[in-house]
Protein backbone atom coordinates (compact mmCIF):
# COMPACT_ATOMS: atom_id res chain seq x y z
CA UNK A 1 0.00 0.00 0.00
CA UNK A 2 1.36 3.41 -0.99
CA UNK A 3 1.67 6.05 1.73
CA UNK A 4 2.62 9.68 1.15
CA UNK A 5 5.35 11.38 3.15
CA UNK A 6 6.49 15.00 2.98
CA UNK A 7 9.83 15.71 1.31
CA UNK A 8 10.41 19.44 1.66
CA UNK A 9 7.67 21.00 -0.48
CA UNK A 10 5.82 17.95 -1.81
CA UNK A 11 4.14 14.77 -0.57
CA UNK A 12 5.80 11.79 -2.24
CA UNK A 13 4.31 8.30 -2.27
CA UNK A 14 6.29 5.53 -0.61
CA UNK A 15 6.18 1.82 -1.42
CA UNK A 16 7.86 -0.85 -3.50
CA UNK A 17 8.25 -0.50 -7.26
CA UNK A 18 5.69 -3.28 -7.82
CA UNK A 19 3.21 -1.58 -5.48
CA UNK A 20 3.42 1.54 -7.63
CA UNK A 21 2.76 -0.48 -10.79
CA UNK A 22 -0.19 -2.22 -9.12
CA UNK A 23 -1.73 1.02 -7.85
CA UNK A 24 -1.41 2.74 -11.23
CA UNK A 25 -2.98 -0.19 -13.06
CA UNK A 26 -5.84 -0.34 -10.54
CA UNK A 27 -6.78 3.26 -11.27
CA UNK A 28 -6.54 2.57 -15.01
CA UNK A 29 -8.60 -0.62 -14.92
CA UNK A 30 -11.32 1.04 -12.85
CA UNK A 31 -11.22 4.11 -15.11
CA UNK A 32 -10.77 6.43 -12.15
CA UNK A 33 -10.11 9.98 -13.32
CA UNK A 34 -6.74 10.43 -11.64
CA UNK A 35 -3.17 11.53 -12.19
CA UNK A 36 0.37 10.53 -11.31
CA UNK A 37 3.26 12.96 -10.90
CA UNK A 38 6.70 11.50 -11.54
CA UNK A 39 8.73 13.69 -9.19
CA UNK A 40 12.37 14.65 -9.49
CA UNK A 41 14.45 17.47 -8.00
CA UNK A 42 13.29 19.90 -10.70
CA UNK A 43 9.64 19.30 -9.78
CA UNK A 44 10.34 19.60 -6.06
CA UNK A 45 12.08 22.96 -6.48
CA UNK A 46 9.36 24.22 -8.84
CA UNK A 47 6.83 23.32 -6.14
CA UNK A 48 8.93 25.02 -3.46
CA UNK A 49 9.06 28.21 -5.53
CA UNK A 50 5.41 28.19 -6.63
CA UNK A 51 2.72 27.34 -4.02
CA UNK A 52 0.04 26.93 -6.71
CA UNK A 53 2.14 24.29 -8.44
CA UNK A 54 2.88 22.61 -5.09
CA UNK A 55 -0.90 22.24 -4.61
CA UNK A 56 -1.20 20.56 -8.02
CA UNK A 57 1.53 18.04 -7.17
CA UNK A 58 0.21 17.39 -3.68
CA UNK A 59 -3.30 16.75 -5.00
CA UNK A 60 -2.04 14.01 -7.32
CA UNK A 61 -3.30 10.53 -6.55
CA UNK A 62 0.26 9.14 -6.73
CA UNK A 63 3.62 10.94 -6.67
CA UNK A 64 6.53 8.67 -7.55
CA UNK A 65 10.14 9.29 -6.41
CA UNK A 66 11.60 9.53 -9.91
CA UNK A 67 15.10 10.75 -9.07
CA UNK A 68 17.54 8.95 -6.78
CA UNK A 69 17.85 12.11 -4.62
CA UNK A 70 14.15 11.83 -3.76
CA UNK A 71 14.33 8.09 -3.14
CA UNK A 72 17.33 8.66 -0.89
CA UNK A 73 15.47 11.52 0.79
CA UNK A 74 13.26 8.92 2.47
CA UNK A 75 16.35 7.42 4.06
CA UNK A 76 17.65 10.83 5.07
CA UNK A 77 14.35 12.08 6.51
CA UNK A 78 12.58 8.93 7.69
CA UNK A 79 15.24 6.20 7.74
CA UNK A 80 13.21 4.31 5.13
CA UNK A 81 14.59 2.40 2.16
CA UNK A 82 12.68 3.52 -0.91
CA UNK A 83 12.81 2.16 -4.47
CA UNK A 84 13.34 4.66 -7.23
CA UNK A 85 10.22 4.74 -9.44
CA UNK A 86 11.31 6.66 -12.52
CA UNK A 87 9.41 7.58 -15.64
CA UNK A 88 12.02 6.06 -17.96
CA UNK A 89 11.37 2.58 -16.57
CA UNK A 90 7.67 3.09 -15.76
CA UNK A 91 6.79 3.77 -19.40
CA UNK A 92 7.86 0.38 -20.84
CA UNK A 93 6.71 -1.47 -17.71
CA UNK A 94 3.22 0.03 -17.90
CA UNK A 95 2.95 -0.56 -21.65
CA UNK A 96 3.79 -4.24 -21.11
CA UNK A 97 1.20 -4.53 -18.35
CA UNK A 98 -1.43 -2.74 -20.43
CA UNK A 99 -0.79 -5.09 -23.32
CA UNK A 100 -1.15 -8.06 -20.99
CA UNK A 101 -4.38 -6.72 -19.43
CA UNK A 102 -5.87 -5.44 -22.72
CA UNK A 103 -5.92 -1.83 -21.54
CA UNK A 104 -5.77 0.91 -24.15
CA UNK A 105 -3.28 3.78 -23.95
CA UNK A 106 -3.16 7.32 -25.27
CA UNK A 107 -0.20 9.65 -25.77
CA UNK A 108 -0.70 13.39 -25.33
CA UNK A 109 2.16 15.81 -25.92
CA UNK A 110 5.52 15.88 -27.61
CA UNK A 111 6.11 16.88 -31.21
CA UNK A 112 4.59 14.94 -34.09
CA UNK A 113 7.90 13.44 -35.21
CA UNK A 114 8.52 11.98 -31.74
CA UNK A 115 4.99 10.58 -31.60
CA UNK A 116 5.35 9.02 -35.06
CA UNK A 117 8.60 7.34 -33.99
CA UNK A 118 6.98 6.16 -30.76
CA UNK A 119 4.00 4.71 -32.62
CA UNK A 120 6.25 2.75 -34.98
CA UNK A 121 8.36 1.46 -32.10
CA UNK A 122 5.30 0.45 -30.05
CA UNK A 123 3.74 -1.43 -32.97
CA UNK A 124 6.87 -3.57 -33.16
CA UNK A 125 7.64 -3.97 -29.44
CA UNK A 126 4.04 -4.36 -28.20
CA UNK A 127 2.16 -5.80 -31.19
CA UNK A 128 -1.13 -6.48 -29.38
CA UNK A 129 -1.21 -3.28 -27.32
CA UNK A 130 -4.23 -1.11 -28.03
CA UNK A 131 -3.10 2.44 -28.82
CA UNK A 132 -6.21 4.61 -28.55
CA UNK A 133 -4.50 7.72 -29.92
CA UNK A 134 -1.45 9.94 -30.14
CA UNK A 135 -1.87 13.70 -30.21
CA UNK A 136 0.61 16.58 -30.40
CA UNK A 137 -1.08 19.77 -29.14
CA UNK A 138 0.04 23.24 -30.25
CA UNK A 139 3.12 24.57 -28.42
CA UNK A 140 1.24 27.54 -26.96
CA UNK A 141 -1.52 28.25 -24.49
CA UNK A 142 -4.67 26.42 -25.58
CA UNK A 143 -7.99 28.13 -26.03
CA UNK A 144 -11.00 26.94 -24.04
CA UNK A 145 -12.45 25.46 -27.23
CA UNK A 146 -9.23 23.50 -27.86
CA UNK A 147 -9.26 22.18 -24.30
CA UNK A 148 -12.81 20.94 -24.77
CA UNK A 149 -11.80 19.28 -28.06
CA UNK A 150 -8.89 17.51 -26.34
CA UNK A 151 -11.16 16.36 -23.54
CA UNK A 152 -13.75 14.98 -25.97
CA UNK A 153 -11.10 13.36 -28.17
CA UNK A 154 -9.67 11.48 -25.20
CA UNK A 155 -13.13 10.44 -23.97
CA UNK A 156 -14.05 9.14 -27.42
CA UNK A 157 -10.80 7.17 -27.65
CA UNK A 158 -11.80 4.92 -24.76
CA UNK A 159 -8.27 5.09 -23.30
CA UNK A 160 -7.61 3.64 -19.86
CA UNK A 161 -4.20 5.27 -19.37
CA UNK A 162 -2.86 8.54 -20.77
CA UNK A 163 0.87 9.23 -21.04
CA UNK A 164 1.35 13.00 -20.89
CA UNK A 165 4.57 14.36 -22.40
CA UNK A 166 4.35 18.13 -21.95
CA UNK A 167 7.27 18.60 -19.57
CA UNK A 168 7.34 19.99 -16.03
CA UNK A 169 5.38 22.01 -14.86
CA UNK A 170 3.02 22.17 -17.85
CA UNK A 171 2.04 18.48 -17.83
CA UNK A 172 1.11 18.46 -14.13
CA UNK A 173 -1.05 21.58 -14.55
CA UNK A 174 -2.77 19.97 -17.56
CA UNK A 175 -3.46 16.72 -15.69
CA UNK A 176 -4.88 18.57 -12.69
CA UNK A 177 -7.19 20.52 -15.02
CA UNK A 178 -8.33 17.31 -16.74
CA UNK A 179 -8.96 15.36 -13.53
CA UNK A 180 -12.68 14.66 -13.23
CA UNK A 181 -13.16 15.33 -16.95
CA UNK A 182 -11.57 12.25 -18.56
CA UNK A 183 -12.30 8.69 -17.30
CA UNK A 184 -8.68 7.54 -17.28
CA UNK A 185 -5.46 7.62 -15.31
CA UNK A 186 -2.96 10.26 -16.50
CA UNK A 187 0.78 10.04 -15.88
CA UNK A 188 3.37 12.69 -16.69
CA UNK A 189 6.37 11.20 -18.49
CA UNK A 190 8.25 14.38 -19.44
CA UNK A 191 11.01 13.62 -21.94
CA UNK A 192 10.89 9.82 -21.62
CA UNK A 193 9.72 9.11 -25.18
CA UNK A 194 13.04 9.79 -27.02
CA UNK A 195 14.87 7.50 -24.58
CA UNK A 196 12.13 4.90 -24.84
CA UNK A 197 12.39 4.71 -28.63
CA UNK A 198 16.20 4.74 -28.62
CA UNK A 199 16.51 8.20 -30.18
CA UNK A 200 18.34 9.34 -27.06
CA UNK A 201 20.64 7.21 -24.88
CA UNK A 202 20.09 6.71 -21.18
CA UNK A 203 22.86 6.82 -18.58
CA UNK A 204 24.55 3.50 -17.64
CA UNK A 205 22.92 1.73 -14.71
CA UNK A 206 25.81 2.48 -12.35
CA UNK A 207 25.22 6.19 -12.91
CA UNK A 208 21.47 5.77 -12.35
CA UNK A 209 22.08 3.90 -9.09
CA UNK A 210 24.52 6.53 -7.78
CA UNK A 211 22.40 9.64 -8.42
CA UNK A 212 24.55 10.60 -11.43
CA UNK A 213 22.03 10.29 -14.25
CA UNK A 214 21.72 14.08 -14.28
CA UNK A 215 25.44 14.31 -15.16
CA UNK A 216 24.90 12.08 -18.20
CA UNK A 217 21.92 14.16 -19.32
CA UNK A 218 23.89 17.36 -18.79
CA UNK A 219 26.65 16.07 -21.11
CA UNK A 220 23.99 15.34 -23.74
CA UNK A 221 22.20 18.70 -23.47
CA UNK A 222 24.55 21.20 -21.75
CA UNK A 223 22.96 24.39 -23.08
CA UNK A 224 19.44 23.46 -22.03
CA UNK A 225 20.20 21.81 -18.70
CA UNK A 226 23.26 23.56 -17.21
CA UNK A 227 21.42 26.45 -15.57
CA UNK A 228 18.55 24.24 -14.39
CA UNK A 229 20.79 21.67 -12.74
CA UNK A 230 23.09 24.27 -11.22
CA UNK A 231 20.12 26.05 -9.65
CA UNK A 232 17.82 23.19 -8.69
CA UNK A 233 20.41 20.68 -7.46
CA UNK A 234 22.16 23.27 -5.32
CA UNK A 235 18.89 24.51 -3.85
CA UNK A 236 17.71 20.96 -3.15
CA UNK A 237 20.85 20.14 -1.15
CA UNK A 238 20.56 23.41 0.76
CA UNK A 239 16.88 22.87 1.61
CA UNK A 240 17.45 19.25 2.63
CA UNK A 241 20.29 20.21 4.96
CA UNK A 242 18.23 23.09 6.38
CA UNK A 243 15.29 20.75 7.05
CA UNK A 244 17.54 18.22 8.79
CA UNK A 245 19.03 20.90 11.03
CA UNK A 246 15.53 22.11 11.90
CA UNK A 247 14.42 18.62 13.01
CA UNK A 248 17.54 18.26 15.18
CA UNK A 249 17.07 21.57 16.99
Automatic annotation (TrEMBL):
Which InterPro entries did the record assign?
WecG_TagA_CpsF
Q: Which UniProt keywords apply?
A: Glycosyltransferase, Transferase
Task: Please give one Pfam family short name.
Answer: Glyco_tran_WecG
- Name the domain of life: Bacteria
Parts forming coiled coils: none
Please give the NCBIfam families that the UniProt record associates with this protein: wecG_tagA_cpsF
- PANTHER family per UniProt: PTHR34136, UDP-N-ACETYL-D-MANNOSAMINURONIC ACID TRANSFERASE (PTHR34136:SF1)
Q: What is this protein called?
A: WecB/TagA/CpsF family glycosyltransferase
Which organism's genome codes for this protein?
Answer: Pedobacter panaciterrae
